[in-house]
Design brief:
Blueprint: H1 2-27, H2 34-41, H3 45-51, H4 55-78, H5 84-101, H6 103-111, H7 118-145, H8 153-170, H9 179-193
Helix pairs in contact: 1-2, 1-4, 1-6, 4-5, 4-6, 4-7, 5-6, 5-7, 5-8, 5-9, 6-8, 7-8
C-alpha cells in the first residue's frame, strides 16, 4: 500500500510542477497564485500544500530540475574527445538547442529565478558557476593550444553561455530557424568570438 501511495504522490508532484510551469510561463511568477496552479493541476489548494508548501518551492524545484539537466548536457558535450574548438562547438550547440527545444521551461527557469529566496538563489548559482567553470576550462585549453585568442576568460565564458540562455526568449516553433539551424549558427558564432574561424 505504501508503494502505491508513493507512486500516486510522485504523479501528483509531477502534475503540480507541470501546472506551475504552464502558469508561470503564461502569467509570470508574480502574476500566478497558488489557486491558479492547483486549478491547472486539477487538485485542491489543500492537496497542493501537502506536496509543496509554497509557490516558491515549486519555482525552486523547476529551477533545480532545469539546471541539473543543462549542467549534465554541457558536461557531456565538454567531455567528448577532440580539440578545444570541437568541445566548445558541442557545448554551444547543445546548450542553445536545449534552450530552444525546452523553451518554456528554460524561460521560466532563467528569467523568474529572481523570485527565489536568497538560499535558493545561492543553490541555483552553484549550478551556474559550474556551467561557467566548464566553459572556462575549454577556453583555457584553447588558449594554451594557441587555437583561441581570448583576452577575458570569465567574460567570454559568460557571453558564450548567454547566447544559449537568450534563445528561449525569442525562439518560436513557427519561426524562420529550426532548432538544428540555431545550434549550427551559434557554434559558428562561438568560434568567431574566441578568434577561431
Amino acid at each position: 500500500m505504501a508503494r502505491r501511495s508513493n507512486v500516486r504522490g510522485e504523479a501528483t508532484r509531477a502534475r503540480l510542477l507541470a501546472a506551475a510551469l504552464d502558469t508561470f510561463a503564461v502569467q509570470g511568477y508574480h502574476g500566478t497564485g497558488t489557486r491558479d496552479i492547483a486549478d491547472e493541476a486539477g487538485i485542491s489548494q489543500a492537496a497542493m500544500f501537502v506536496h509543496y508548501s509554497t509557490k516558491e518551492d515549486l519555482l525552486f524545484q523547476l529551477a533545480v530540475d532545469g539546471h541539473r539537466t543543462i549542467v549534465e548536457i554541457v558536461r557531456e558535450a565538454a567531455a567528448r574527445k577532440g580539440t578545444a574548438a570541437e568541445k566548445l562547438s558541442a557545448v554551444v550547440r547543445d546548450h542553445s538547442r536545449y534552450h530552444a527545444q525546452f523553451q518554456k521551461q528554460a524561460r521560466v527557469v532563467n528569467f523568474e529565478i529572481g523570485a527565489l529566496t536568497r538560499e535558493h538563489r545561492e543553490e541555483i548559482s552553484r549550478y551556474r558557476r559550474e556551467l561557467e567553470s566548464i566553459v572556462r576550462g575549454i577556453l583555457i585549453e584553447g588558449v594554451q593550444s594557441g587555437d583561441f585568442r581570448v583576452v577575458d576568460l570569465p567574460m567570454t565564458a559568460l557571453a558564450l553561455l548567454s547566447l544559449g540562455f537568450d534563445v528561449c526568449r525569442w525562439y518560436r516553433e513557427d519561426g524562420i530557424w529550426t532548432i538544428e539551424e540555431i545550434g549550427d549558427r551559434y557554434q559558428e558564432m562561438a568560434l568567431r568570438i574566441v578568434g577561431c574561424s
